[in-house]
Design a protein that fits this description.
Layout (H helix, E strand, L loop, with lengths): L6 E5 L4 H12 L3 E6 L2 H16 L3 E5 L5 H15 L4 E4 L5 E3 L7 H29 L3 E6 L12 H21 L4 E8 L5 H4 L11 H8 L10 H12 L10 E4 L3 H4 L3 H4 L10 E5 L8 E4 L2
Helix pairs in contact: 1-8, 3-4, 4-5
């Protein structure tokens, strides 16, 4: 198995791309710490892992990735439970601030950057400390987005935060290369998950069908993206197969970026300029979105 005897920590690991990756890593022989802000879905993910035959190979810890003590405790859990740390997948995310730039509040901006950018920084910082001390190298994977590559690939603040993740991943890869610590980013395109749909964690079937149909038409590849597609890319970056790959940004987008996102044309209702609402969306955290209508 490609990850046999390796220890991984996955943030946002209780749903969507994070959960798919956790299950794939377990299948490939890893021991996994599932970290998530939402304790309810986190415990459900652990039950699912146990039911799939991975009892004792996965654990859950509630984590706010914007809190440095939480991130330290999350990584310490890997050391305490499994006596090591080989892989960290900084994947936790929210939709964050939405609406026109001129209506975006500082608090909405800060919330978005706290989760999407500061959370990745903290994950890299403390994972690197542990990996440097162990002297065995490791792999750090960060979830960015095609939104970070284009001026019309996503909501403005979300896009800025994801661009920061891409840049941070490259810079960290250069700094940590002498320690044999690889740092790479994954840029998903339109992936049909509850987070992208704005629905409850675990939503499936009819809840996501309209989104899947829309996403399937949004890029050259004639099918919608799934969490498993991202999990496959994460597996490659986590495994020794990518030993000479660092500082890279891997697109998992069905050719979307090659064709040009043009989000405002494909999904005009989510264009920031044309939006009739402002606020923040909080994804699968279990917390309510804070949306206000613009008169």
């Amino acid at each position: 198995m490609r990850l046999e005897n390796k220890v991984a920590v996955i943030t946002g690991g209780a749903s969507g791309m994070g959960l798919a990756t956790a299950m794939r890593f377990l299948e490939e022989g890893a021991r996994v710490v599932i970290a998530d802000y939402n304790a309810e879905t986190g415990n459900a993910a652990l039950i699912a892992a146990d039911g799939a035959g991975y009892r004792g190979l996965a654990s859950f810890i509630r984590t706010d990735v914007a809190s440095e003590p939480d991130v330290e405790a999350m990584l310490q859990r890997a050391l305490d439970e499994y006596d090591g740390l080989d892989i960290v997948f900084n994947n936790a995310g929210v939709g964050g601030a939405v609406g026109p730039l001129t209506e975006t509040t500082v608090s909405d901006w800060d919330y978005t950057f706290d989760v999407l950018a500061k959370g990745v920084f903290l994950g890299i910082k403390h994972a690197a400390r542990i990996m440097q001390s162990a002297g065995k190298g490791g792999s750090i994977i960060n979830t960015a987005s095609v939104a970070g590559l284009s001026g019309d690939g996503g909501p403005l603040v979300y896009s800025a935060a994801k661009a920061a993740v891409i840049s941070l991943s490259k810079s960290a890869a250069v700094e940590l290369a002498p320690d044999l610590i690889r740092v790479n980013a994954i840029c998903p395109g339109f992936i049909a998950t509850p987070l992208s749909a704005g629905t409850r964690p675990g939503a499936d079937g009819e809840d996501l069908d309209p989104l899947r149909a829309a996403f399937a038409k949004s890029q050259p590849w004639p099918a919608h993206g799934t969490a498993d597609h991202v999990a496959g890319a994460a597996l490659f970056l986590a495994s020794d197969d990518s030993e000479f790959v660092t500082g890279e940004t891997i697109l998992v987008d069905g050719g979307l970026t090659a064709a040009g996102p043009e989000l405002s044309r494909k999904f005009p209702r989510v264009s920031s300029r044309n939006s009739k609402v402002s606020g923040v969306t909080k994804g699968s955290t279990g917390e309510a979105n804070e949306i206000r209508r613009l008169d």
